[in-house]
Amino acid sequence: MKKLDYLGFPTQMTDESVIHIAKVVIPRRIKQETIWFDYVKSINGTENLNLKSKHFKKLVRAGIPDSERSHIWCKILGVFDKMNDNPGYYVNSLRNSSAIDPEIMEQIMLDVPRTFDGAISFSSGAVLNILKVFALSCPEIGYCQSISFLAAIVLSVIHAEEPSFWALRLMIENYFPREYYAPSMFDFTVDLTLVKLLISERSPELNRAVKSLNYDWIQCASGWLLTAFSNSFPIATVLRIWDSFLLEGPKIVFRVIVAFLRMNEHEIKSCDDQNLLPKLIKRLEVNTVDQDKLMSTAFSIKMFSREHLKELREASKKSIVENGLGSQPKMKACLQSMFGQLNM
């Protein structure tokens, strides 16, 4: 039987990390529940949330409590409006799932059982249904490996299938560039290149040390980007990141990447074995349980504007076009190394 965390997800955390969660993370969650209870009471209910207020942003950055996360994520994403505007859409689409391309359906069937294999926090059958409707509703994407992880995280928080589907679709439509999960994966390739530029800019010594071992950041950055950390960090940490990601947008992902590397720079630079480096980074990922330190580091990074990210993204696009880095075979190989067999 696989070891599960307190949220019901499989984990490879060390005993030290488990103790940190018991002594720090869970008591802090209880404190956050009280803070949010008082806040919601002061505004006469979550229906009166002002998503653009500085106070709300500050509260979200400190973490949304489990009791409020489902409703607030739906509110931020606009799930309730979509459901009201499209009554019966989910059920009718599910009935029409036989229209899904057989190759896409086969890939979904391959991926669902190995998405957080052993987790007890969501129903695999519900994830399957959500992915079926997503494939029908977004034909330009259909399905891409890694989306199953996003669907499982959303479902574990929101619980019900229909709002979870809309949350997934709205997140992919509004938070990721158009060709992120499309067959070309061009925009994903752009962000991979952007991450490399960011690391060389923000952590030049670390970048040189890692390059000397012939390590390509694509090995870890692919999972960070495609699953928004959900197949890398402990799920409690992932939920804390997603709270701010959903409110503030994709820049949070890049802030967290830089923060994670800064927090672990000394240990990564100390590794002089190219065979051990991937294992070291994986161990650091699965034991990223100090959420406060991670997020405070992320938000302390200066000169991290949307404009600067836009400049880096344009430079990345230029590099990809000039050097032919966006090859589909390379992306498929990357997906297979992270998520398992592809239906090819």
From TrEMBL:
GO terms for molecular function: GTPase activator activity; small GTPase binding. InterPro entries: Rab-GAP-TBC_dom, Rab-GAP_TBC_sf, Rab_GAP_TBC_domain. Residues 63-249 form the Rab-GAP TBC domain. It comes from the Eukaryota. This is TBC domain containing protein. It comes from Tritrichomonas foetus.
